[in-house]
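Record 1 of the preview.
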Amino acid sequence: MSVVLGLLVGLVLGLTGAGGSVFAVPLLVFGLGWTPLQAAPVALIAVCVAAAFGTVVAWDLSFVRYRAALLMSFVGLFTAPLGLLLGLHLPAPALGVLFAGVLVVVATRMWLQARRHPQDARVVRATVHSESADDARGGPLCRSSVDSGRLLWTPRCASAIVGIGAGSGFLSGLLGVGGGFVIVPALRATTTLSVHSAVATSLMAIALTSAGTVATMLAFGRPLPWLVALPFVAGALGGMLAGRRLAPRLAGPLMQQCFAVLMLIAAFALLTRT
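->
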């Protein structure tokens, strides 16, 4: 069951782009009967491995803005323990309701993205392959070099990146999610990075932040069932590889909207269970 659930998570991660990792916790909750608090460490390990794979793929294409990713993950290491502490003190029903709310937010964003920016819906974690000047948009906080694509660092730009890292790290510790659904839209709103570069940069930040959050959870004494975690991670990696092959054929607005509907169903089911 752990391997099968991991395969499903890997496929979602490979096909849906940022936001697919939120499926990991609900699948563990319904597939193994765990609470979100129990599922968070296992989900984060799978997200970390899958995001690291996506980073390696994107790195060869020079889409990763590694300085921004390192800064976001560094800040996230300090805010993840705050989310972890809050999660430990929240009652299980409140945590379930909160996670369902996150699912609704991600599903809504995914649906709107597919309608407003269909070209973004074709850029997935597993197949970052090309970009053009038309892909770039965003606010004036962070400009990027026309020649190299690198961010032009200013105090305002650094503050925006720090804020993004703080928010994603906090959610990683609280809910056991990668935070890509926060990082990618935030980078697109505050920088002139293309969607390809934003996704690739988020992957590196997610991999580092997830690894740090898992280490923090272990330091806090959270149990980690390795007999379930390792098969789950292996399945997620296999699903990611399959997603890489299927993405060019399936990726697009319709698929994003289908996954958005599935997320809303999962949110309703999680609320009912809670």
